[in-house]
Each structure stands twice: as C-alpha cells, then as structure tokens.
TrEMBL record:
The lineage of its organism: Bacteria, Pseudomonadati, Campylobacterota, Epsilonproteobacteria, Campylobacterales. This is Peptidyl-tRNA hydrolase. Residues 195-219 have a biased composition (Polar residues). The gene is pth. PROSITE patterns: PEPT_TRNA_HYDROL_1, PEPT_TRNA_HYDROL_2. It comes from Helicobacter cinaedi CCUG 18818 = ATCC BAA-847. Its EC number is 3.1.1.29.
Length: 243
C-alpha cells in the first residue's frame, strides 16, 4: 500500500494555539475531527502523529513538536524512515492577503523558518498549501505571526476549513502523480484569490442592487398607475352619482 505525508506547521503549547503561525496545526486538528482519526505523540520523531487509511493509501498527518524553526528535524527523519516522496506541507504565508489559498511545488522558503528548516534537511521538492495571513502595518513580523487571529479572521478561517479539507483529500487522491502537476491541478481547482473574489462579489452586489432598484421602481410605478386609474374611476362614478 502506498503512503503519503501531510504536515501541518506550528508551535506546540496552549500559548500558540490560536496564533497565525499555527495555521498548519489548526487545519490538521480540523481534519482529525472531520475524518475521525486521533493524534498521538511519537517520541521517535518528536511529533504528534495521526494515521488514516483512505484511497487505498496510508495517510500520515504530522504536527512537529520541535517548534517552528526546527520543523525539518521532525519532518525529514519521518519522511526518510517511511520512504515518503509525496509530501504536502500546510503553512501560513505573509506575502499573500488573508484568506488567499495557493498551492506551490518547490521554490524558495520565502523567509518562512519552518519551510527553511525542512528545505535544509530534506530539500524543497514537496507541495505547499499556503494560507494567506497578510502583513501587519504596525507589528514586527515576529510579533504579528505569533499573535492570535482576530475573532473575525478566525470565523473566516473556520468557514474555509471544508474547502481546505476537500483540497487535502484531493492531494491524497493525486499524491502519487508528479508533484508539480499535482500542485498545478490543486491551484487550478482550489486556489482562492480573496481580493479578486471580493471584487467580483462587489460587482455582483452592485449589479443586483441596480436590478433590485429597477424592480423596486417598477413595483412603485404599478401601484401609482393603479391608484390614478382607481381615483379617476371613483371620481367619474361620484360625478355620475351626483347628476
């Protein structure tokens, strides 16, 4: 039976549970509940490990407990031990707006210390699921990524979880194919451009409002015309009755 590895990056401990840097952990925790598998600590790899059999494959879900900057010290030994070449890493991404979802194969770490650690220990030929958190205009990068999501952001993030689940399960189905092709297919089907979608939604809302306004105007005109006709008829009747 073939197998693949799905890694969620984050920092261990209650202190970091709701921080932007823990996107990967949050997604895997959601999958654990949605798909019905549990995590258990694996001392050998210093990671929380969940296992699921699906699509005639073994899916390994890994949450390194090394802290972000040393993620590769958990991921690389695990991938080597089980001889896994199909790897998906889920992480936060500063350089794309909040709510954007993008898929990428290989490339640089973009300054992300978790990816940098993985690249240094096992190379960069894996698929990344990049969840946009944007940048802060007032906080340093470190303070920002280690701060909690706002309530509104957390609600938006949770609303996207089923979409992320579908994307990850699609990776599981395609994971034995060329990873470059897999990343391209996932981006085409599951990539989200929040700003573009917002612009489309705004345009649709304006179009809808214009249509509603026209319909509202028509509906106002109909009673007015009816009222005029009824008034005229009533007036004529009154005159006739007075004659």
């Amino acid at each position: 039976m073939s197998a693949l590895l799905i890694v969620g990056l984050g920092n261990p401990g209650v202190k970091y549970e709701k921080t932007r840097h823990n996107v990967g952990f949050m997604v895997l925790d959601f999958l654990s509940k949605a798909l019905g598998f549990d995590f258990a600590f694996d001392k050998k790899f210093n990671a929380e490990l969940g296992i699921l059999k699906a699509y005639n494959q073994t899916l390994y879900f890994l949450k390194p407990q090394t802290f972000m900057n040393l993620s590769g010290e958990s991921v690389a030994p695990f991938a080597r031990y089980f001889q896994l070449s199909s790897v998906l890493v889920i992480h936060d991404e500063l350089d794309i707006p909040f709510g954007d979802i993008r898929f990428k194969f290989a490339g640089s770490s973009g300054g992300h210390n978790g990816l940098k650690s993985i690249d240094n220990t096992m190379g960069n030929e894996y698929v990344r699921l990049r969840f946009g958190i944007g940048r802060s205009a007032t906080q340093s990068v470190v303070d920002y990524v280690l701060s909690d999501f706002s309530l509104q952001e957390m609600e938006s993030f949770h609303a996207l979880m089923p979409h992320l689940q579908e994307a990850i399960l699609s990776f599981a189905q395609m994971g034995q194919d060329s990873l470059k092709d897999v990343a391209t297919a996932l981006q085409s089907r599951f990539g989200i451009n929040a700003r573009q979608n917002a612009s489309k939604q705004t345009a649709q809302n304006k179009k809808s409002q214009t249509k509603d306004s026209a319909n509202s105007l028509d509906s106002k005109n109909i009673p007015l015309e009816t009222h005029k006709i009824e008034s005229s008829f009533s007036f004529a009747t009154n005159r006739k009755g007075g004659e």
